[in-house]
Amino acid sequence: MADAHLRGMAGEERDAPQHMSEDKGFDLDELVSESGDESSQGSSGSEEEEEAEEEAGSWIAWFCSLKGNEFFAEVEEEYIQDDFNLSGLSSQVPYYEYALDLILDSESLQNEILTEAQQELVETAAEALYGLIHARYVLTSRGMNAMLEKFKGCDFGRCPRVFCNGQACLPVGLSDVPRQATVKLFCPKCEDVFYPRSKYHGNLDGAYFGTTFPHLFLLTYPTMRPPKPAETYLPRVFGFKIHPSAYQRERGRQPGPPQQQQQQQPQQEQQQSKQRRSGGGASSQQQRSSNHNMEDQEQQQQEQQPGGSGKRLPSPPLPPPPSPGRSGGRRLSNG
């Protein structure tokens, strides 16, 4: 009995290591699979983080995310890398090569050692260069599509006119030449331009959007063009419309400011003196002609007197003047 019991114990001890090894093997497989999943998740997560860092770290995305640059669309790098799209801009922007490398995040610029003053000049040139590139990009189909999304979201603002009922606006420049005018808002409904509400947007150069963009945009997307407003504001006084002639009458009654009167007086005097000089010869001729007419009228009246033969009678001769020292043909004697 004892031998049988010892043999059973030895068999259990032999079987036990096999079960334990099997359990350990199972645990190792799970650990290997779990570690593989974690490594794959870590690699995918690191790739996503790198992509996010690249997207967030691009100069174009950073520039468009600044406060006041919400009007800008993100220009594709492929468009900027095409030299044909940048023709003529090198003469308008200083430090053109450095600015272009900064926009495209080129490694060649990172190797350059620039001072703080030079770095500021390059950044300013990059902003100007991106704005001029943006003015060309928004005229393309991809650029208009990007601006369409902003227009639908009213990112550019709404028309302040009451009867436009909050119509979404589009950015427009009054000149295509840089540093001439700031950006304005064009309302497609009333077809008028307004200042942006934000002071940050009011500092943007209008040449970065151009004079063509809003009108070409509405021709490209005719469904985005709203109907013109049916109502217009009419000034009234006690419910009655004011006739336009009323303003003219009021202007005629009210005298001008004293400064305008003082300025008008010397001008009027100069005009009068010129008229006198130019009309002096004419007035003398008129006086002469009027004198001749008076003489002719007098002659006609004398001829038409009764008893006249229609001819002018000769006047009787005058007596000769008396000679000195004679009276009645006799010499006077003294005393």
Reconstruct the topology from this structure.
Elements (H helix, E strand, L loop, with lengths): L1 H56 L1 H6 L12 H5 L14 H8 L3 H5 L4 H22 L3 H12 L17 E3 L11 E3 L6 E2 L4 H4 L10 H8 L15 E2 L2 E2 L2 H10 L4 H46 L22 E2 L2 E2 L4
Antiparallel strand pairs: 1-2, 2-3, 4-5, 6-7
Task: Explain how this protein is built.
This protein starts with a helix and ends with a strand. By secondary structure, it is mainly α. The chain has helices at 2-57, 59-64, 77-81, 96-103, 107-111, 116-137, 141-152, 199-202, 213-220, 244-253, 258-303, and strands at residues 170-172, 184-186, 193-194, 236-237, 240-241, 326-327, 330-331. Strands 1-2-3 form a 3-stranded antiparallel beta sheet, with no helix packed on it. Strands 4-5 form a two-stranded antiparallel ribbon. The chain is elongated and about 130 Å long. The chain contains 11 helices and 7 strands. Helix content is 54%, strand content 5%. Helix 4 (96-103) packs across helix 6 (116-137).
Helical stretch tally:
11
Secondary-structure content class: mainly alpha
Question: Assembly type of the shown chains?
Answer: single chain
> Gap between N and C termini, in Å?
227 Å
- What's the arrangement of strands in the largest beta sheet? 1-2-3
What is the strand content?
Answer: under 5%
